[in-house]
Each structure stands twice: as structure tokens, then as C-alpha cells.
């Protein structure tokens, strides 16, 4: 308590912010938790009670281990603390076990591992030189940035209500970004390699890392016009980078290679058998595509252009099926999504190579990679939007244009997470927290950039304000209408399609700003 | 206000904390046959909805007064009726006569919690925001920080949203706060109207009534009892009478009705104190069983005398020197005197002291924070009984951090900042070496925090010895009571030495 007092009394706002949000997380302990809670409990049990050779074969529960080995080891480490809370949760057969002590342990494990995230935010704040602004604390870019990151709505509800461990994974990513900003490239690469072996979803942003390290670290110098000086290539740097990646991978996958289980591990990690879209459609390009398909099929039926008997039943009754069959438009295969993703990523990669702008450029490229994969990826979860939102926060305090894109992206992205929490007691929480974050982010960034042109044009304002009526319709009006049974998918479809528009717009705007930005020689003054 | 958005965020944080606390359990959850305050609340909705108004306060076959009979003033009953109408629309089972006894379900809990949040949002929170906006000589940032601290005060949140108090405290305290606001900023009539509403919502607001009376009377005196003062006095009297008549309209028509309501409101035949309260009588009974030694009416007389004696000086001072600042401090001391000495006190009544202390948070941050921590601590046995340990610890820490960062309280322990300057100066006339006060107070604070933490830990982890099953809760009350006595002396000192310092300042100016 006294130490707490000392920490807070010196006007140390950062620790106050971090402690504040930690306490809020503690208050969220009794809230609803999704099946992910059971997923992680099951993994605790698997890693604790089975030998390594069985980890990726065990399938008593339907929630099999499908994260890379480091995460399995992480669960293994946690399980050794868990046994002091409740031994029963470590039993593989104990499906859906959720005693109060299990709940407490799992929730606290998330809260505790978030320390890494807090540290990463602290490091990021050190290396971000936002817009120079007034002396008042609440108007300092660092303060705003740390609120935007620490109190991020998406992380709060996904990690601390829905239940996942994104906090410390995001912490690893932010920390590696911070290291790259601090010119500690090797550390950054190491952290990212480790992160990849914690959760492979971060492969989405790997192109940005690879190319940035190659272009700006392995090539030690540029020509005066900013293009690459080929003879400055440093083999030593390339090899040491390669060594890092190789060693980390060996540490992670080596044991499974030795057991010759690598194919099994990979088949768990990349389950292409799942559908194009997750249960809730993530608000991406495919959501728009699906929505268009639905609209066309409805119109087709009305105009008698389609034969009702030929339409697959599932597609009309609900939006909640894993396998969505298109009726009018051609169906989409994993290969198509892969190609689309690659095409979407390419321009940003080119930019990174031909117009290197230091770590800022890298950050932009990373966000574009994350967003593009989110837009076109196969079986994307709506939670993956956090992968773009959190790094984007770093950019938002630097430039008015970025701030505007950030606000559109976060507000719509966060809103699209609403269907994750569908239980009544959590309804006020999600609305209040969303309002809290949105009001704060919009107003504080507006204050920060008050001397420049307004952040939103009328169209964007209109679009963002539209989220309010949409929420009222989906949660308060729709359940009382007669459509509830007939079109139960409607709220989800509306939410996804509406948010998809905003996210596509933000993606497009960010792309335009990256491509049209002046090249490095003008902006690079330091 | 150019920083409206900061205020909005603060309000949203307050609301979020309130709602997350309300996810926890409530008093008497799943404990038949009597359940707890939550059931009382629901039962009143049932009674007010199904019975004609004349039968609300009377014992009958439909209205067993021994089972959570209505024992609050009419406004409470009207509010219950209003809630009952909403409940009727959602699910009539919730308020069905007789059959709904002990009704518990997730949806109903949600409904009850929502009624608290809405009442809070409509009455208490706007009053707090307005109060903070009206503060003078403060930067916007400080105002916002002040609002955050007041809204995060854990005692009120835990009792209203965790325990589920027998009457929404936020409503009565909110009305009282509106009253304080009105009276302090020269809207005397509106202020007294708001306070009458508070009084008619919960009779416990009588704790605050004397300072209101004295302050308004003092104002009238100041304006001259023959001219404007008399007009104001008459106007005030009319407002009070009118608002009372309005609230009691269905009951004043018959004498028996009114008397019965009064009997229900002031159950003098109950004991000197109930359960474990951190007041004098409960603490004394550790050594001396007053309840058994003295006859009932003597107990009443003694408690009345003590209460009156302890609050008289401050009230008299307020009549002759009415000032908004003195008014706030008198509210603190009066409520505290009532809490410590009066008859039939509940542990939750400490909230009535906490409200005015919240209002002086910006003037003496160190002492107020300390007091508010102690007040929450004094309710620990109650909160533990409701299984609210986790939210208690979390909200207390959040409150402490909020206060510590926004006021940097640890740097504010000089005589000046404790408002003890003039007191020390006058003591130094006789005792020149009297310079150690701030240091003593710092030490006391540290010791008090340590005892509170230790006692909490002990209560949670240790089993009490079989001979004294209530050992820890008695200890908690005893310790809190000692601290409250200290605070009573402290606040009285501030009031008594207040104007002198101002005169001194004027001289030096």
C-alpha cells in the first residue's frame, strides 16, 4: 500500500493509468466468458498431464491445441501455478470445468501476463515523438497514446470478458516494434520470432518485418535519392538475423521435428477445412461479398429469376453457419483468398522497399499487412482487427491524417466486436466501455490536432454517428419485432456489412496516404 | 466547459465501475426465509403495486409488516410503485402478491440493478458533476479529477450496487446534494425543496437537517429579521410545508394513517444499535453491556443528550456565521455526531457522513481521503457477509489511487493544507513547542492504514476463536469508531477556528 502510494504520489500518471485499468480488469472477473475459456483450460490440462509427444494428438475435447509450441509451453508453465488453485482443472477428462477457483486463476493469469503489455506500452511511449503540443498533461501525445493503448476497448473485452491472451502477445509485438524504433533491430527480430511461435496469426505482418529488416538493416546505406545502395549489403547482419529466426524456430519446432510430428502440428495450426468466414462474419471484404450475395438472391427470388428449390437452405435461414454457400456469386476458395491477400499486401511491401521512411514507414506497412490480411483472409476472426488497431494507435498521435484514419478504424472495428458479447448483463458494460473509449479517443485527438483541419468530413461523421442507431436497432428494437425468428441473422449481417464499409474505407484511405506520401528525402530531417 | 469530454469520460468510468460491481452477489441472495435487503426492495414493489395506498403501512393478511414491512417515507413507496409498473410490463411474476416472495432470477437481478443505475444516473451523478463544475478557483483538470474521486467513492458503490441497500442511497444522497448545491449558490427555495424530497425519501436524512436549518436560519438573520430575512423565512417555511404536504397527501387526510407511517419510520422500540456499528454505543458495549444495564427510555435520553451536545457548538456557530464552507463542514460534524451517538444507527448510515466529506475532498484532500477509506472499512463485516471482498478491495484501491494521483495527497500534510494553521497558532500561545501536529497526523494515517489492511487480512484468512465468533467484526467496529471520534474532533476544530483564520488573513492582506 505504501509502495503504491509512493508510486502514485509523484504525479506518475503512467502507473496510475496502468493500475487503474488493472483494477478495472479485476472488476470484470465475474463477467461472462466464452468457450475460449474452456479452450484454454483444456490446453492447461493437456500440457500439464500429457507428455509432449501427445500434445498435438490429444482430442478428448473438441478444442484441440491449435497454437504453436511456445504457447503450449506457456500453458505448461501456467499449469504449474494452476495446480495450487484447483487441481481438478488440470484433468483432461474434466470437460467444461469452471469452478470459481479455476475462473479466478484463469482471469488472473490474463491480468498478470498483461504486465508485459504495460511494459511494451511504456517503451512505445518513450520512442514515439508525437505532435508537439501544449504543456498540459492531458494534451501530451504520450499521455493520449498510453490511454489509447492501455485502455483499449477491444483488448479489454476480448481478453478480460470474452477470454483470450491477446494482451501479452500484443505486448510482444509492440515491444518488438519499439525495439525497431530504438534501432535495436536484433532484439526486435528476436521478439517477433518468439511471438510467431506463440501465435501464428502474426504471420500476417511477417512480410513487413522481413522486408524492413532486409531493406533498412541488412542494407546499411542508401543512395542520396533514397534508393537502395546495393554494395552496402551486410552479410553478417543477414546471417545473424537468420540465425536468430532459425534458433527460435528450432527451439519451438525442434522437439516435434525430432518426434517427426511436424505435419500433425501444421495440420492443427492451419485448419483450412473451416469456412470462408468465422461464425460471426468479420467485417471484411468477404462480409460485403456475402451480403451482396444475400441481397442478390433475395432480389432474384422476388423477381423469379432464381429457382427457390435450388437455393441451399442454410444460406437463407441463418448467418451463423460455418460453411456459407453462395447462391448468386461464385464461391470463394482458400486459394483465391490467398491470392487476394498477396495482391493487397504487395503495394505496401513495394513502398517499404522503394520509399523507405524508417521505422514509421515500417509501422505503416505492418498495419497495411495486418489490415489487408484481415480484409481478404480465409476464416478471419473479427478479433484480428486488434492486430491493426493497436499499432495504428502509435501512428494516430503523430499526424492529423493518421488520426482520422485511426478513429474510423477503431470505432468501426471495436463496434464490430459487439456481437462477441451477447449476454444481457454485459450489454451495459460493452456500451459504456465503448462510449468511454470512443469519446476519449475522438475528443483527445481532436484537441491534439485542433489547429489543423477537422478530422472528419461530413460523410465520415455521418457514417460514425450511424453506429448509434444501428446499435439501438440491433439490440433494443430488433428483438421485439416479428422478424426476430424469421431473419435472426439480420443484426449480425447488418453489423458486419456496416462495419465492413468503414474498415474498407479506412484501409483504402491508409493505402492512399502511404502511396502518395512524399518520399523519404523530404520528410527525413533527423 | 472546454473539457467536457474529460468529464464525460469520468462519468462513464463511474458508471462502468458501478455496473461491474453490480454483477456480484447481493445481500440475502439465496438465503430463505427472510432473504435480505434485495428482497425487501422487491417486496415493497409487490406491496405498493397490489395494495391500495391506505394499506401500505398497516399490518394485514396481505401485508405482513414483520416480513420486510415498508418502513421508509412515502417517496420511497412511490418510487417502488413506479418500479413495479415497469416490472409488471417485463414480467408480472416479479411482483405477484404473495407468490413472488423470495423471487430470484438472473433477469430480475438485472432489472433491480438497472433501476439503481437509472436512479443514480438521473439524480446523484448529475448533482456530483454540477457540484464539481461549480467549484471556484480550480483548473478544469482539477474539477474533473475531483468528480472522478467523488464518483469512485467505494462505500456508496458497494452498498448500492453490491449489497443492495434497503433504499437506493444514491437517490436520497443525490437529493441532499441537490439541496446543498441549491442552498450554497443562493437558490434557497429550490435547495430546501430538494432537501425535503431527500427527507421524504429516507428519514435518515435527518442527520443533515440541522445544518440545513441552521444555515438557512443564519442567512435569514444575516438579511435582517425585519426586512428581507423575514420574507425569506416565510418563503422557506412555505416551501417546506408545501413539499411535505405534497409528499404525504394520501396519508395526512387521516390522523391514524399519518401516525402509523411515523411509527413505522421511527421504530423507537428497537434497540440502541443493530448488528455491529462503528459508533460509541456499540464500541462501549464491548466493555459494558449498556443495552442490558440501562432501561430503554434512559438509553434514548442519553443518546439524545450526547448527540445534541456534540453537534450544538458547530450548529450555533453556523447560525451566527453562515457560509457555504462552514455549512459543508457542519454537515460533516452533524452527521458524524448522529452516527456516533444517536439511537438505532445502521452501519450503512456512515454514507450520510461520507457525502459531505466528499464535498470537502478538494479542500482537505488528505484527511477526506483518509476518512472515506475508514468509512468503507467500517462496513467491512457487512460487505464480507455479502461475498463482496473482491469488488471491495478493487474499488478501494481504485479510489485510493484516484485520490492519490489527482490531489497528490501525501504532499499535502502541512498545517496550512490540513486547515489547522489557526488552531496551531492559538495552541502555540500556550505551548510554544506545538509544531509536531502534521507529523503526528502522518504517522496516525500510516498506522491507521496498516491496521485496516491487517484487520482485513485477518478477517478474511483467519477463523475467529470459538469463544468470540464476532471477534473480528467487533474489532473492525471498535477501530473505526476510534478513528471516527478523532475525525469528529478534527472537523469541529476546523469549524471553530475557521473564521479566525480568515480574519487573520484579512489583517495580513
Automatic annotation (TrEMBL), chain A:
Recorded superkingdom: Eukaryota
Class of the enzyme per the UniProt entry, highest EC level: transferase
Keywords: Endoplasmic reticulum, Glycosyltransferase, Membrane, Signal, Transferase, Transmembrane, Transmembrane helix
EC id: 2.4.1.-
Protein's membrane topology: Multi-pass membrane protein
Keyword Iron: no
InterPro entries, per database record: Glyco_trans_ALG6/ALG8 (IPR004856)
Entry annotated with the keyword Transmembrane helix: yes
Known pathway: Protein modification; protein glycosylation
Gene Ontology biological process terms in this record: protein N-linked glycosylation
Signal peptide: 1-18
TM region positions: 12-32, 141-158, 188-214, 234-259, 335-355, 361-378, 429-449, 461-481, 487-508
GO cellular component, one term: endoplasmic reticulum membrane
Gene Ontology molecular functions: dolichyl pyrophosphate Glc1Man9GlcNAc2 alpha-1,3-glucosyltransferase activity
Name of the molecule in the record: Alpha-1,3-glucosyltransferase
Origin species: Pipistrellus kuhlii (Kuhl's pipistrelle)
From TrEMBL, chain B:
Residue stretches spanning the membrane: 110-132, 144-164, 176-199, 229-251, 326-343, 350-373, 388-411, 444-460, 472-497
GO CC, any one term: endoplasmic reticulum membrane
MF GO annotations: dolichyl pyrophosphate Man9GlcNAc2 alpha-1,3-glucosyltransferase activity
InterPro entries: Glyco_trans_ALG6/ALG8
Signal peptide start and end residues: 1-22
Topology with respect to the bilayer: Multi-pass membrane protein
Enzyme Commission number: 2.4.1.-
Pathway where it operates: Protein modification; protein glycosylation
Enzyme class: transferase
Keyword Transferase: yes
Family: Belongs to the ALG6/ALG8 glucosyltransferase family.
Protein name: Alpha-1,3-glucosyltransferase
